[in-house]
Amino acid sequence: MGGSTHVSDQPHASQMSEAHDEPDLLRDQFRQLVRYRALLVAGVLIGLLGGGYLAVSGKDTYVATSEVVLRAATVDEFAAGGTAPDKAINIGTERQTAMSNEIAKRAAKKLHLSARSVSALQSDLQVTNPPNTLVLRFAYTYTDPDQAARRANALAQAFMDARQEATENTIKNTVHNLRKQLDPVVKQRKELDEQILRLGEGPTLDAATTVQATLVGRISELSTNITRLQTLDTTPGKWIRVASPPAAASGPGLPMMLGLGALVGVAIGLLAAWVRLVFDPTARSEGDVVRALRAPVLGTLPRSKGGPLLAVDHADPRLAEEFRSVAFRLAYDQRFAEHRRLLVVAPRGGGDTAASVAVNLSASFAEMGMEVLLIEADLRTPGLSARLRAADGSRPGWARSPHLSEGGWPAGLQVPIDAGESGSFDLVPGRRVRNVARALTSSAASRLFAEADAPGAAVIVLAPAVLTYADALALADRIDGVLVVADPHAVHRADLDRVRQLISGAGSTVLGAVLHTSPGRGWWARRSRRAARKRNAAAARSEAAAPAAAPAAGTASAPEGGVTVATAATARTSLPSGDDTPAPTTDTIPLRTVTR
């Protein structure tokens, strides 16, 4: 029984989980739609412009309304049974008659309009019937309020006249038919009266008298019907509302049209955003990244001017805490904790953000008491060492890896990097080589990666983008875990899926992803980045022009509780002479310090 109870509870738990997931999915979809602000704003502007144009360009129209209540012909309206029942009036037929061409012709004749105006007169008229009533409402729309009232009344009067005329004609025809029936009966009675005078007593007289009584009854019946018809009140109805010139134009005004235009514009914008969302190949959200990589999102870097940790004078404290959180999550990941080797890569594009993540994770691990070695495995466009501040002195790489690679990398040099209050870590800088694949798979490189096997040591490797070069795949089988750095708004879901397949095929595992937001691609964003680069260059020149102000050669002071920032000029003067890697003209990568 216990087993059956457990099985029966599983579908219920699954249904509860799906029920809780639905609001989250709706919120996520709504947030994704709101991302396309340009489409939403464009839709609202289109709606406002359309509503304003219709309100301004359209002529003011006035609606005049007259109402009549219909009645059937009756002998005595106040006598019992004197009024015909309501079913004698077919209100639907009367409404169609009121909108007919014949009524329009009558009204045009009363208004002294030409025959060409009949169709316009008919098209501008609207006749309605309030439910459960015998009322007809004549509403006429025209640009002149006086003319609208005159024409509404003329059309209603034309209908009433036509209805009364039709009733009178019906009565006249009926009376005529009854008289045609009465005349032969009267003539027959006169002849019978003459015969009765000549007859004597007997059966013949009795028969003639009986026929005479029948004829008298028939004559009385026909005469009564004729008299009743001739005394009918043929009034077709009565007016309950006479149209008067309207004081204000009909239809929505400018505010109403703008409001309606805004609502329509929002609908258009949402529809355009939905279509854009359906055909958007990018990852769009954390959920799409998790589904594509089949790995968790370890952190999301907050938006920063000019991009995350690039072209800034001091790191954002939120960024520092985010890197610290990512480092702790990795440290407590069993897959990383066993071997402590991490490959940091991006799917496509440049590696500025991936380099920032690798450097700041190295500082975070150093703060946690680990002996960190950061390896720049970018042997095509190296330049990380020129952007970091070296600590006092440098130690040769042969102290830890005595043999050099045949390909020229590693070059026998490990540079200590000052991470401020977080401590320091070692950097193996990259350098250009002829055969990248041979250098990355050399025995010297393998010994570098094996340094993570020492207790309390960690190795972080920075490689070029996975889908740009195959360098990361050559390292994946030697590195146990891969950290993917991506912008979900720029990378395609297919690219992330391909990255996962390539890394899995190479024998490694995706430990997680760090998401960021790339700097804007518009004109204003490019201008802001150029201005930031100019400010950094000016700061570097001023620092180089005043060396006495520096605390010591090759070091830079960090603000209390802030970020240690190294300029390109400081880094170049601090590098050993044995490193011939040219310094790139890229922005400085700042290292954070954590206030204790």
TrEMBL record:
Gene3D superfamilies from the entry?
P-loop containing nucleotide triphosphate hydrolases
Give residue spans, biased composition: Polar residues: 1-17
Which parts of the sequence are annotated with region: Disordered?
A: 1-22, 534-596
Task: Tell me the keywords, alphabetical order.
Answer: ATP-binding, Membrane, Nucleotide-binding, Transmembrane, Transmembrane helix
The answer on whether this UniProt entry bears the keyword Transmembrane helix reads: yes
Q: Which domain of life is it from?
A: Bacteria
Q: What residues form the membrane-spanning segments? A: 36-56, 254-275
Task: List the residue ranges forming a coiled coil, or say none.
Answer: none
Signal peptide coordinates:
none
* Extent of Low complexity compositional bias: 537-590
Q: What name is this protein filed under?
A: Chain length determinant protein
